[in-house]
Amino acid sequence: MAAAVPRLSSSAAASSSSTLNHPTLRRHKPSSSLPSSLRLPLQSSPCLSHRLTLRSSVPSLRLPCSAAATQVSVFDTDDKPHEQCGVFGIIGDPDAAQMCYLGLHALQHRGQEGAGIVSSDGSALHSVTGLGLVSEVFSDASKLAPLVGSAAIGHNRYSTSGAASALANVQPFVAGYRFGQLAVAHNGNLVNYRSLRHELESKGSIFSTTSDTEVILHLIATSAARPLIARIVEACESLSGAFSLVFLTADKLIAVRDPHGFRPLVMGRRPNGAVVFASETSALDLISAEYVREVNPGEVIAVDVNDMLIATSYLLTRKPRKSCVFEHIYFSSPNSIIFGHPVHASRYNFGAALARESPAPGADIVIPVPDSGLFAALGFAGASGVPFKQGLIRSHYVGRSFIAPNQEERDLAVKLKLAPVEGILAGKSVVVIDDSIVRGTTSSKIVRLIKNEGKAREVHMRIACPPIVGSCYYGVDTPRAEELISNRLGVNELRQEIGCDSLGFLSLESMKGAFGEGRHMLCDACFTRKYPVTAPEPLAAEVGDEAED
Ligand code: SF4
Q1: For a designed S-S bond to 19, which of 126, 257, 320, 501 qualifies (C-beta 3.0 to 4.6 A apart)?
Q2: Does residue 398 carry a pLDDT above 90?
Q3: In terms of C-beta density within 10 A (0-12 exposed, 13-18 middle, 19 or more buried), how is residue 547 classed?
Q4: Lowest mean pLDDT segment, chosen from 15-19, 250-254, 279-283, 427-431
Q5: Among 321, 526, 527, 530, which is best to mutate for testing ligand 1, by the most ligand atoms less than 8 A from CB?
Q6: Is 112 a residue whose pLDDT tops 80?
Q7: Is 83 near ligand 1, meaning CB less than 6 Å away?
Q8: Whose CA is nearest to atom 2 of ligand 1?
């Protein structure tokens, strides 16, 4: 495993001292024009030039068809909520940055728009961030070379707040303030971001990004509390919403989870004693770290690089636990343990419950919509006795976008990603298991694909979660409520719209029942609209609006 990690060369490592003095990537106003009671210059990475090189080295696209050719993102067409972000942190490991790089690979499914690592050499922080996949940002060993030291944090970005394509919004963020340097990586979404930012800006704070995470750094910087842990606790007490955070200073790694525990965060330990924090246990597995436990909701865990002592404290605010059930339905990797439950087992149980609640008498085969429907389809097949088959083959090589000849060819996204296996489907009555339906834009295409090209006789859609009727405010990119198809159509109307022979959803009771006693500790707001934290109305002024001078 270690052989696959880009290693540092000593000469490359020696060049890392240039990491700390790059200009701010982006400001809403020039700093000189503003009174600044607070200055928190977010440092760009040493590879700003690298990023520019990366971008300019991408060959220009030659559109093969007419001027109507369209670049289509597969994210526009897959009808899934999109994952928040992934965070990773490690301390006490001589190969901290390399372990972080591997951890981010294991968390790649949580965000594909950008990635970054910040390391500490014991006295200073070093940062490399960029747009794209982990493998694109860290495309060879030289990209990891500046990241010296025995502690590091990393982040995979999917934008739920802040402009998706802005380099400045790629985390971890690094700030310099009166007590030195501080880096942060955040998974989640702050529902009071606008009001916090408005308040900070009215006191003179200058922001360099449009990300909600930056307010956390400002709150820490403006806190009068001592020492650092107290400042972090005080800042986090002001936050409302979802936050699983890892912070890095010159000598400390700190992990914090919001009092509801919306997003996952786990702790592990490597055989060499290094302490690891990660969004999912799959990241621990990849670096041979043992899963120790979850970071509890509201918990603050600090590890000092000098003695590796672990200090635990809690935020004062206590809330009922409300962990995101969608982590089990769709987001998390099946080989992860999330909120203490193995994800593959949850999905299997969802499918088995679906078979009992919504059987398909006379069906010949059960097939998943790959990949996320796989374990639920196995559960349905196991409980019903209907044979499991791979009737749809997913292409893993489509990439994140493709060129469609014209606007009408957007349907190509489904065909490019999913190919029906006629030899398995032809003449059969088929149960198709999908994890969820959001806008309903792809389900009808999948049904057409199975019927018209796979030549199936009947298609019975079974969905391994309840109808989605609410948007998420806690770090998941869901459409507005009016775009959710289950808000417009009942099950039978939706069946007609999709064009399948029958349609069934897993009930809320059965879904939560799969977690036993843990059923009361789950957020289910996108199925019930019972929001644990009410999203405040946005202020009249949007973030980034400038006041009259
Ligand atoms: Fe998860 Fe839905 Fe709650 Fe958002 S609203 S945290 S997606 S369960």
Answers
A1: 126
A2: no
A3: exposed
A4: 15-19
A5: 526
A6: yes
A7: no
A8: 526
